[in-house]
Amino acid sequence: MTGSVRRRGLWRASAVAVIVLGLSTLAAGPYRFVFGSAVGSTAGTRHAPCLPGQEVAILNSPHIPESAAAGTRYNSEPPTSGPHFGFTVATGVYDTAVPPGLFVHAMEHGHIVIHYPPDAPEAVREKLRGLARAHGADVVLTPNAQVRAGVVLTAWGRMERLDGPDEARITAFVAKLANRYNHGWARAADC
Amino acid sequence: METRTKAAADLITIGHDGEAFVLGRPDLGVYVAVPEPGAVFIRELQATGSVASATAKATESAGADVDGAEFLQGLEQAGLLEPPAGAGGERGGIRWIEGVSQRTAARLFGRTAWLLYGGALAVVLAILALRPDLRPYYEHAWWLPDPILSVLALVPLGLLIGGLHEMWHWLAGRAEGVPAIFRVSNRGIYVVFETDLTQIVSIPRRRRYGAFLAGMALDTVVMAVALSLRLLNRTQVLALPGLLDRLLAAVVLTQFFAIGWQFFAVFMRSDMYAVLANALRCHDLYRATWLTAKDRLWRLNPEESAELAAASERDRKVAEWFGAVYLAGIFVMVWLMLLYGLPFAISMIVWVGSNLVRPDLGTWAFWSSALVAALVVGTRVAPLLLAARERRLRLRGRLR
Fold this sequence. Notes:
Chain A is of the alpha/beta class. Chain A contains 5 helices and 6 strands. Chain A has a 6-stranded mixed β-sheet, with helices on both faces. Helix content of chain B is 65%, strand content 8%.
């Protein structure tokens, strides 16, 4: 009887230890990501003169409902951080405008957003679609009525304006800035 | 008398299951394990229609006198000699699917077909290993700029693929001559597809793997096609519309999760559980493992102790270590939930909650959020509240 009780105690202790150890290991990795999914981002601006584009000050970036979107003001056009919806969009090519509440969230996940004027020539669109397909895991391509001319590239806290679909500069922007941020700065240093 | 017995015996299938033989009536869902002389008896009865001849053969096989009449009486009591059930049974099988012949079904599970399934698996593994940018990511679930429409639009596709998964199990069973039943039913508001493969015990174990693996094979083919199309689009060989590419990403995500579930959720009797239990020559490893784990960590009540004692020796022996397989499966599923399910669920809760807390009655966001909240409360929370109320009343003696 005593042996049986002791054996059961050992089994219980072993099971608890394995489960606690396993769950701690599992949770240690994605905790920041899960936490960020719930509340948004709080990391501050980071200076990186070696990177493509211009730095844009990072705003407080909480989650907002759709009813608050119309009254939201950003510090740049298009925005590179700030209030956004609680869900994001998959990367890829969009033929209709993705709202700021969504593409800001995409940038918060480390993605690059390529904006072009809705009346851009088909040749420009086609070139951009090809580039967006090639960088399909990193890029959201969207028409944006607030972009009057050229092409605008945005990442979290970063923006570059181009006269047209300059492949070399777009590729460099994506290579240097994709995944730089994901609910927090992802790299120890940029330069 | 003998004519009636022969007619009933002709409906019995004979399967070899390790040390025992399984006599089955697939049309009734009745199976009985018997020693080899029992199988010899039925085979002879089916061949000659003579109980005396069958008894003589069984006696020869047993090396001792066999009472044929008593054996038949036992079979009758077990329900194996009942008249045939009506076509389709009472379980609502789908006639047009069940009309597929064994020969037609076998074409989907021949050597060439399995080479194709294996090739699809190789394609999936190669693309996932060599192209990290094509790996599934939880945000692929939002392939439309509206989270609720994204999920709603995936429902019919999920039903289609889920239906095909179950149908492939059924077809693989059919290919082996197992008269399985495929049916569509509902659990609450959810449509479910089910394949009844219980009759598979009537064929040798080595022939059962196809039926167990068929669902995952189909899932793998779907995933391979979706991944290949995305790869061709990414490498500019194809120029898919953006919407289609994102839909394919969502399909890859759902298939990744579906295959992961079938592979690792052994503790929930997934397809891989069936494969492992079959390979380990067990009968009800699932129950034996849970009872063994409960006995070690807690204690068994008298009924459970009796159930574990009645399990086969093989089941009890394997169950001693199979709990570790359950634990490994639980860890993998928790990891998948943390990486995929939890961020998705949190984002949806934040979105729905924020739209309800700060409502704008003129928007789709508010009404779709209200719909989702009502569905969740109705299908998830209400049963919990009712169960809690029932328990409270039971404890107070107001409910028996």
